Structure prediction request, 703 residues.
Amino acid sequence: MKVRILIAAALVCLFSLAYPQDKGLGGPDSYGYRWIDSDEVGGPVYGWVDISGYGTPLNLGDEDTSSDVYLGFYVNYYGSYYNMLKVMSNGYVSFTSSFCEFQNSSIPSTSDPNGIVAPFWCDLDPSAQGNIYYYNDYTYSRLIIQYENIVQYGESSGNTFQIFIYSNGQTYFQYKTMGGSMLNACTAGIESPTGTVGLQVAYNTTYIKNNLAVRIYPSVVVTDGTLAVSETTLNYGNVTLNEKSTKPFTIYNNHATEVLEGEITTITGYSVTESAKNVLAFEINPLDSMVYDLAFQPVSAQSYNGYIIITSTDTQNASDSIYVSGTGAAPNIYVSQADTLTADVFVGGNAEKYFNIVNNGTGNLEYNLRVSQISKGSGGPDSYGYTWADSDGAGGPEYLWKEISDKGTAVTLGDEGFFTATLGFTFNFYGTNFTSVKIGANGFLTFTSSSGSPTNQAIPSATDPNNVIAAFWDDLDPSIQGNIYYYYDSVFKRFIVQYDNIVRFGTTAGNTFEIILNSDGTIIYQYKALNGLMNSCTVGIENSDGTTGLQPAYNSAYLKNSFAIEFYPPTWISITPRWDYILPSDTTEVTVGFKSANLTPGIHYTNLNIDSTDPDTPTVTVPVKFNVIELTAPQNVTTSLVGATIRLSWTAVPYATSYKIYSSSTPYGTFVEDTTGTINGTQWTTNIVNVRKFYKVTAYGTK
Prediction:
């Protein structure tokens, strides 16, 4: 039992006064270690590397210590070499100790634990929620330990942070989401195996915050080294504007005893990244190397050529270079439908028309096709007129995942929580316009409800929540792991919500899916990786009072990976594919469907707006004309006698392609088709018979 919560809370203010923290760098300690954070010039750049989806979970309890975790290399730590460590539940690791102490102390201290690397040493409890993961990243010679959504004892808000331990002796702390209310009751720093030497970044002070990175590095006694670079040229070819192409290169220190220090200087269009971290300065231990990724991201259609310069402390080879070349490639959209797209059908009929979208440019083209808002019809699969199709069906949507975790806004939600986001446009849902939406933790959006019910139900239902857009309505809990992101795509006028690696309550397998609201009223669900119980959720849409809805699935085995569902508002036009990614010199054929059901006869108009990444022509508009034809009865029907024949004549009916004659012996009897005569245009002749006849002319047409 823990009984020190009130005492710890009372000490926080005292420690905060005693140990003010107003700097973002420090050291050296007596061994030579220094530290610098991302707020300082020359400090590291924060760049989260999420390993929760592929790292090894440790499943530690409260005051728990892992078994040995192997680094995958030997690292020099305070003069001794280690290839393994232990991970403690209380926010630190140790090369020498197995003791998991909940009460943090200042650094250095000879009291156990010693030999620690501590980004957030405090009383954490991973048994309450979250998990701790580790991953051997051999590409960059580093071990990553990630504390994911771990709470301080007695609290409910999780903390997500990580440790990077590199083979060259450098250590990085990264703090992604620090949600606790006692962030100033912890220790951050490193300490020698004996506890006599240490470097303290923070101790019981207000310092740690979201999106912060700290670099801890050993000072160098002898700096000279022997520089070698793996590449002399890197050619990127054509890269689409604003897209990123990355190529690796390696800097070697071939000296047996001396450390190599230096700096990488890039040119416009290029940046050096080490995983997710931008880096210019480097420090490489003897007989070691570092792999760097050089990213080319053009912003204009031009050539980007020049030299990346590597300067170093090598007195015999002070600098080296890599010649880089690449061209910013712009897409160029061409639409084969140059004039109005027209379709004519008779009442009750359907039609399909086709046109091509061509990429005549040198860069990749992405487009999104939307329909101008048009008047609502009536009827359809639900009483309002919404219909749906999935990517397995003919004419259904194509699965095209849109990743937004790298650019969207992260939403921190507790279990059954909501967050209200602005859409960026007006969205019509069941006849009502909305400019914002509430993002729910349990896999659905709602425009008006405040109920985050974890118990899914069939659609429609008058029971709250209503006005829902449910892609995976189930008892989900984003406070355990993963995150939810939203993003307004102003280029393609759509709002995207991504549920990333979210688990169902009581399980450990994450689910990744997204909801896309297009400004033309269409709704798309996309399912990237579903690992949970896929047959215990509700998929559908529902109106504001729960009287009308459309339900593709309810507690059934329907959903799967790489799958899409699209909902269409009441309209007479459909488009396939609605969006696509077109390579240079490639073409996509667009099928436009026309449905006359529920439309009044006459001419109906709308526009197809094609938004694309073409920088010169961001939107192409194709006017659409839909003529719904209702045949009228033949007019001016007359009869005449010509010798031994009877002739019927009438005025031609617009759009009629054929006529039939019906006859009966009485005007009120049953008329049957009369095939005794011959039709020639708008005349019909037959031989005279000595029987009274009444005739009817009917027009027919096909489109």
